[in-house]
Amino acid sequence: MRTLIPGPALLLPAACSAPPPDPTPAPRRLPRPGTAWQWQLDGPIDDRVDVPVHDIDGFENDASTVRRLHRAGRKVICYLNAGAWESFRPDHKNFSSAVLGSQNGWEGERRPDIRRLDTLRPLMAERMDICRSPGFDAVGPDLLDACLNDTGFPLTAAHQVAYNRMIARLAHDRGLSVGLKNDVPQVPQLVDDFDFAVNEECAQYDDCAELTPFVKAGKAVFHVEYALPVDKFCERARRPGLGSMRKRLDLGVWRQPC
Question: What is the distance, to the nearest Å, from the Cα of residue 47 to the centroid of all Cα atoms in its chain?
Answer without folding.
Answer: 21
